[in-house]
Amino acid sequence: MVAWMRHLKCAMAVAGVICAGSSGADLDLSISFDGSNTITVTPCGGNVNYEVTGMLSDSQNEGLAGFVFELAFSGGPLGPAGTPTSDPMLSFAPPAGISGPGGFGGAVVDGALIGVGGAQNTLNNSEGNAPLPVGSVVTGVGHTEVVLVTGSLTAPVEPGTYTLSLTNLSAMVIKQ
Description:
The protein is an all-beta fold. It has strands at 4-9, 27-33, 47-56, 64-73, 98-99, 107-109, 112-119, 146-154, 161-173. Helices cover 0% and strands 39% of the residues.
């Protein structure tokens, strides 16, 4: 297991990257808080927005087909991440795409998010075959950096350094 960590303080900090096999390319991920590598929450206990961005290590494919990972926060429980509201990520969430039982934003298990992410309709399913998924495949996703997931968390009331960690990444690409 490769673990990627992002630190959060009631003064937050530190960036990093995780790479995991994705059928011919690696998906390099990073987490930022309100668009920054370092953030200070004043007062402590406030809401903090985060986003997970990703980029494939090569373009010898048609783009990202699907991804899933887990998020945990050392400062307390997380709520589900957001459901996509714009392209291309709309293609990775129902009804256009598919996601796990907890939905695109993941299921909360012991305060962590399990199964964050989704996949495109690479089955070429249409409404005549089954009710879901029904979206068109979007190619080129991940050839440049793309925001995969957004969410928010509540910073602890006590000052300190806290970690938002991303683990158990699994990703697939669309073969050329």
